[in-house]
Here is the input.
Amino acid sequence: MSNYSTDIDTAASLIENEGSAWNAINPESVARMRTQNQFKTGLDIAKYTAKIMREDMANYDADSSQYTQSLGCWHGFIGQQKMIAIKKHLLTTKRCYLYLSGWMVAALRSEFGPLPDQSMHEKTSVASLIAELYTFLRQADARELGGLFRELDNADAADKAAVQDKIDNFETHIVPIIADIDAGFGNEEATYLMAKQMIEAGACCIQLENQVSDVKQCGHQDGKVTVPHVEFLAKINAVRYAFLELGIDDGVIVARTDSLGAGLTQKIAVTSEPGDLGDKYNSFIEVEEVTSDNLENGDVVFKRGDKLVKPSRLPNGLFKFRAGTGEERCILDCITSLQNGADLLWIETEKPHVAQIGAMVNAIREVVPNAKLVYNNSPSFNWTLNFRQQIFDVMKEQGKDVSAYERADLMSIDYDETELAIEADEKIRTFQADSAREAGIFHHLITLPTYHTAALSTDNLAKEYFGDQGMLGYVANVQRKEIRQGIACVKHQNMAGSDMGDAHKEYFSGDQALKASGKDNTMNQFG
Here is the structure.
């Protein structure tokens, strides 16, 4: 017996026990509402999605072609439409997640207005967006199931079993969210409190970075400052305690290192003996040996080996790392994080280069064999130029004639139809599969794609509609394409819940219900 049929029987027994006072309650309507609301709380969602993510991680360990993907979403509607599209085109939501980008929260969701990615936005806006995303995904479930219930009501007896099977085997739009907590928005207690809010809203996976919280920078900007490992590990512990307190025993923590592009540190790490973690961190700091001539007022001095040294300090009090140590620091960061409670890694790189990423992951895997990455397929990279230059360099190394190309100008449209450009595009197309296989990338995401798609589509619409195309600019480039591509929100009243509202009115009021879906509803023009 299906869950739906069981719910009908359970509701019927309950109603019968209540006697005539509940005669107006229809057990099948109760079952339908329960089916349309599978997840009652954010913690229900976090438990469900954590299990999915852990299974996906195990599947990837067994077969690297089973990598996962997500797109960054800055509004519930964007996340909802993404998952509806995935179900429509791929017929499943498996291995497809959502990503919540701190950059987009800062740029699009702050009451201060657009802000740079420097943790200046309200910390509660992150949990609010998680809750909003899941509200819209739950509504996507209810909307699709509502359509199946109407289909069931209208089906001939011979067809009802097939519709019932669709209901019984319905695949939810609820998927894991990887949620960006930046550098924790304060000390470890602040990180714990914010993580709890995020988990209660539904997050099964929290991404934390090793920058200094109060001077945090976007990973693709200059001026990044990292913290000693002990401070970062305290925040990893804080997130784990939040998961465990709330009963999400398999919650996932992504430890992000910005060390590749971070040339500064705020603190000299505490060290007890040569070779400990603090000493390793300090070994990367740029220093000069102390002499009687170079020790100045206020200088900081520490012992390295058998010598006294002073670190290079900037006017703002920050200390410089030695140039060229970024990759080595990244590898140490990643090993340390995995050995102290993190589940996945994030290395913020300056370009999408499989060999560079793979070399770091191979070094990490010498110590932690199942290490795997979440990787930012960032819009901050000029993908076209980067990959054309990579192909140019390979061709040159192979002794091929590259005299027809100007390396610095490979972005030019003049090269679009060349062998080099076509090969570069193919490398971009296969980048996710290649790097999942060769560089340990379990999850591929684009942090802020829908920021760019919204801007691009709005630019195109404005150009046409306010130009000489007038209304045709909308009809030809938006509505006609929606209809022909089967975009669900072409029936925007249905997407906003009018059909669900009609169903509920009928449950509540019976024949007296005043419904919106009659013959005069203009949505009927869309079939």
